[in-house]
Design brief:
Elements (H helix, E strand, L loop, with lengths): L2 H17 L20 H6 L6 H4 L11 E9 L15 H10 L1 E10 L2 H12 L6 E4 L1 H9 L9 H5 L2 H8 L4 H5 L1 E2 L2 E2 L2 E4 L7 E6 H7 L7 H14 L7 E3 L24 H5 L8 E3 L5 E3 L4 H15 L13 H6 L3 E7 L9 H5 L5 E4 L16 E7 L5
Parallel strand pairs: 1-2, 8-11
Antiparallel strand pairs: 3-13, 4-5, 6-13, 7-11, 7-12, 9-10
Length: 389
């Protein structure tokens, strides 16, 4: 195998292992920019050049010698490594080295959120992409338009495992469409499940029990609980009844370009008014409108402003370094996010307080309806430098 192709297939194997495991993360989205794309079935079967039987390689092959791949890495500031592990030496990198002879070299690392997004944008603007890195859809399209990306159209069907192919083909093959630009597969994608976009309210159940309160169902219930948390200060002085988005890439709500769930945003509050700010939605008359401008969004904004004025929402919303740290420290009573958030980013909350009991509850309208939206089928993009050598 030629050296360049070897490193390309190395990146493909490592990228597939990474991308296929990414779900429940902030998920950049947007509309597909494909034109005249080959069908997903043709791509998956290798019909873009030869049959699958003729070209199929071992998706779990181990290289004869160690092959280095250089990556840009997203670091999670609120999640710590086990003792002795580092960005470059951990259970994942050791697995790749031991099982595939793939040695991961971290060229640079940046904290998730604004720091990482800015670093990715800088790499694309300066045409200094590492061998591979994860990014959002806007960055993928920017790099693709600038002809920076490796073309996996022929290589992907050769080395993608049957399980990965099945995942790509699920959801009407939309994952293939999102991975292509002008008819060529220029990235690998992490396929997400639609339920990842459903946001809930997460509550300190032990605080509810301590104060004799019932779990919330409606916005009125959430307000009542927030007032009780504000007045009783169960987390000590400076208790935050409801967390808000921080300054590190979070937002009050997601949008159609970056359509993952807004961490510590307020999407269930908007949904309780049947409002979806940041999205284009169709009304009952079939007319398309921008959700931010809807009457429901106006009512939700008014309610949030009232909560903030009453001291029910974090007074440092928008300027706090990390809302997760406020949750992990035991100061926060409620926050809105997807159901998976309790096991992703706030694990230190349980380490710091073994009695912490976080529970997730659906937020209903006053008449008992549950409004939600579906998630984009693609949760992440892994792009690779076309000049792999």
């Amino acid at each position: 195998m030629k050296k360049g192709l070897k490193r390309a297939s190395t990146l493909l194997i490592a990228g597939l292992l990474a991308a296929a495991s990414i779900t429940g993360c902030s998920a950049p989205g947007g509309t597909s920019s494909t034109t005249d794309t080959p069908s997903a079935a043709d791509t998956a079967s290798g019909n873009s050049g030869g049959t699958a039987e003729e070209e199929k390689g071992d998706p779990f092959m181990k290289f004869d010698e160690p092959v280095e791949i250089h990556i840009g890495q997203m670091a999670q500031p609120t999640m710590s490594f086990p003792e002795g592990d580092t960005n470059e030496d951990n259970v994942y990198t050791r697995y790749l080295l031991d099982n595939f002879n793939i040695k991961v070299v971290v060229d640079w690392s940046a904290a998730s959120g604004n720091d990482y997004s800015q670093k990715v944008s800088l790499c694309i603007a300066s045409n200094t992409l590492p061998d591979g890195m994860s990014c959002g859809r806007k960055d993928f399209l920017a790099a693709a338009k600038s002809d920076m990306l490796y073309d996996f159209t022929d290589l992907f069907p050769q080395y993608a495992s049957p399980q990965v192919l099945a995942i790509m083909e699920s959801g009407d093959n939309l994952a293939y469409e999102y991975s292509m630009y002008e008819g060529r597969q220029l990235c690998m994608v992490g396929v997400d499940v639609s339920a990842s976009g459903r946001s809930v309210v997460n509550v300190r159940q032990d605080w509810l029990d301590e104060l004799g309160l019932e779990p919330p169902k409606t916005l009125d219930d959430i307000e009542e609980i927030a007032i009780a948390f504000r007045d009783a200060q169960p987390g000590g002085e400076g208790t935050i009844p409801i967390a808000g988005p921080d300054k590190n890439g979070s937002a009050c709500y997601s949008n159609f370009l970056a359509n993952g769930v807004a961490s510590c945003g307020f999407e269930p509050v908007f949904a309780a008014y049947d409002a979806y700010p940041g999205w284009w939605v169709e009304d009952e008359n079939g007319k398309v409108e921008y959700g931010t401008l809807s009457e429901g969004s106006r009512k939700a904004f008014e309610r949030l402003a009232d909560w903030y004025a009453k001291g029910l929402i974090d007074p440092e919303m928008g300027v706090r370094d990390s809302s997760d740290e406020a949750i992990n420290s035991g100061k926060t009573g409620m926050y809105f996010c997807a159901w998976w958030k309790m096991g992703y980013g706030i694990t230190d909350a349980y380490h710091n307080d073994p009695h912490a009991n976080w529970q997730a509850y659906t937020v209903y309208t006053d008449d008992g309806q549950w409004n939600t939206r579906e998630q984009c089928p693609v949760g992440s993009y892994v792009i690779c430098n076309k000049n792999i050598s």
